[in-house]
């Protein structure tokens, strides 16, 4: 039996206390990790650690925390209709910003660290590509037409874009958001492994 497609504008908040609690626990852990990473950037005890290492870890942890925050705040948003749709539009903008950081600044950081540690950069690139394929974050392109049209910016045709966005499949959107959270967690782990590795064969 085929599942009925539910549009974003019509989907209602789902009551799932256990899921929400898991998400809050995940956010708490992500927040603590981000705090540790950010403190490391300015720690005098770690002044010997290369700046690239601290920034790569700090940004990876920060973005993962931000994505976990989006999931939790979305879970707790009980408003339906246009207000909820506008909130989802903000999430779209965040996902594009995260993807761009991973594809550009984030990748460059990891490759510079690998080069400094004499780790095969092709090996690191493959890890990154495997991660992208595993979580399929390129699917965010589905929502490219809506980027900065009614979230964080009001386009001249914001109303028509919002109406079209409301007709998008809700399951696809929620699955994509979850995929980004998992991707960001894996990226953070790859970063930590690379930063801590002294042996090229262990990266």
Report on this model:
Helix 1 (17-42) runs antiparallel to helix 2 (51-76) and helix 3 (82-116) runs parallel beside helix 6. The model has no long low-confidence stretch (mean pLDDT 88). With 203 residues, this protein is mainly alpha-helical. 67% of the residues lie in helices and 0% in strands.
SSE topology:
Layout: H1 17-42, H2 51-76, H3 82-116, H4 121-135, H5 158-165, H6 170-196
Helix pairs in contact: 1-2, 2-3, 2-6, 3-4, 3-6, 4-6
Characteristics:
203 residues; 0% strand; elongated; mainly alpha
Overall geometric form: elongated
Write the element-wise H/E pattern from the N-terminal end onward: HHHHHH
How many helices does DSSP assign? 6
What is the beta-strand fraction? under 5%
User: Structural class, judged by helices and strands?
Assistant: mainly alpha
Number of domains: 1
* End-to-end C-alpha gap: 46 Å
Mean pLDDT: 88
Radius of gyration: 19 Å
Helix content class: 55-70%
**Main sheet summary:** none
Number of strands: 0
Low-confidence stretches: none
């Amino acid at each position: 039996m085929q599942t009925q497609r539910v549009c974003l504008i019509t989907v209602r908040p789902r009551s799932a206390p256990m899921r929400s609690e898991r998400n809050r626990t995940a956010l708490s852990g992500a927040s603590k990790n981000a705090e540790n990473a950010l403190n490391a950037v300015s720690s005098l005890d770690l002044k010997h650690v290369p700046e690239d290492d601290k920034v790569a870890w700090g940004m990876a942890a920060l973005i993962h925390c931000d994505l976990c925050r989006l999931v939790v705040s979305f879970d707790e948003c009980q408003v339906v209709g246009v207000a909820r749709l506008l909130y989802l539009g903000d999430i779209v903008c965040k996902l594009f910003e995260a993807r761009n950081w991973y594809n550009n600044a984030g990748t460059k950081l990891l490759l510079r660290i690998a080069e400094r540690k004499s780790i095969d950069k092709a090996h690191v690139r493959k890890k990154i590509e495997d991660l992208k394929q595993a979580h399929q974050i390129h699917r965010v392109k589905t929502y490219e037409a809506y980027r900065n049209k009614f979230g964080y910016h009001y386009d001249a045709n914001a109303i028509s874009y919002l109406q079209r966005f409301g007709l998008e499949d809700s399951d696809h959107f929620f699955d994509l958001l979850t995929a980004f959270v998992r991707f960001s967690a894996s990226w953070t782990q790859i970063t930590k492994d690379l930063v801590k590795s002294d042996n090229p064969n262990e990266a």
